[in-house]
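Reviewer 2 asked us to include a model.

Predict the structure of this chain.
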Amino acid sequence: MNQLLLPFQCNFGVYDRLNIIAFQAYNELIMHKRFAFFLLSILLQMHLLHATDIPLIKAYSSVCQQAADSDLVFSQFKRNPNYTAFVEHLSYLDGINYLKVIKEEYPDLLKRTDQFRQNDLYGNPQVFNYKEIGKFSPTTLRYVKVAGDLKREFGANLSNMHIVEIGGGYGGQCKILADICDFASYTLIDLPACNALSKKYLELMGIKNVHFIDNTAIHDIGQYDLVISNFAFSEFSPQEQIVYWENVIQPTPNGYMTLNFPHIWPETFTLDDMLAKLLASARQGKIEPEIPQTGGDNQLMLWKSTMESTAIKHSLIAQGNPELNSLMDWNGPLFHKALINRLNQQEPIDDYALSQKGVTIALHIPGGDFFSPGYNLNNDNLLEFPPVDYYTMQLKRLSEIFTDTQLFIYILTKNPNIEQITTTFAKALLNPKMTFGWKVHVPVPTIDITRLINEAFFMAKFDCFIRTESNFSKLVEILGAHQVVITPKHFTTTANGPTIDQVTIKFRGP
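Predicted model (structure tokens):
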């Protein structure tokens, strides 16, 4: 859960301040609760305790069952504090931020506001008056934003998909998706009591082709086209995560998961764990910070099957589909082929670096002498010229993804202190499986186009690419078919200077 909300209404300013105080107090208590959660994890693993026996989850499940059985409880369930600890806990400001994304990225969805508002008819959720669209629950606006993301990523194919959602809540995401597409089927996996509530809710909404699976019966549940999880998976215990990964996530070719990493349970999947598993399953996609950000380190992980997404493109071309332009992945193989045909490689590629054993990693360090006393990073172009610790952190990430294998790191740079940079990397990472190679360019007054193209083709051949926001890095990514591409997205200033605190990771299985 991202926030604790107070179970009463009051003036927004007071409400918001009290909510922040409550959330800070909760964070302070978390450290003292971790040992208790560690013991709970052991008891769950030994089957001496069931998840529904945990008081917080037990209270939540109880509200769901009561709401399913009683129309009186159902009429108010979105106000019950035992329910809002898990669902319907977003703030007015969260709603403002979700609405901003919807207006900027998915303005066509604003034509359906009256249809979406029906999601707030039952359960008496806390609604706020938003300029231009009227009263809405912030949670409903989140569901609309997610629906916009899914429509953008999967387009017309969304209507033909068999969708499964992990932790379906009361069925709000299902309802909003049904407003914008005709999915083939929608399956919700949750606690039995939650499924009873969502079944009642979605029947009242008139949503068809919906199925329910209890969380205790997810073995051999069949095949789906798309799996969705809005925070649920990252809040599971390690044992639950393994079961869901093996039976739901890994077999599903497409996925959309928002992850909040509460770090309560020990040994839960990390972001890098999941990335390694998706790469091994021949998935392609991206990992980027949640937008809007509702938690300190929330991430969005989205993936597609490489074979399926390519097949869709070829099918659309054969049909002359007018939606091809909006669905085309301009980093995909069709665009690669067209671009490479336009750019004639002038010289053969030196395959020394590419012949190295293990995983090959290319780094582009555009320029700047990191170790010069007079060197200062300019915040205006920090994403184009990131500090050296950005590369160190991303090399560490890749070493944790590609474990038990040799890593060859090739650096292309104008930085004259390349040996000092590699020494810095080696000391920080302490990984005997890493070896380094490099090429240093002496700055020239005019751009050498031939050299630029040759180097772009060369770096496009590596398994992984740690890039910047420079135009050269962008060209390399377009030309390449890297398994992993990491790009700086946001920076912050600390006592030790500026640092990259958010990155986007694109991945493509072999």
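The chain has 18 helices and 15 strands. The two ends are 35 Å apart (CA to CA). We have added this to the supplementary material.
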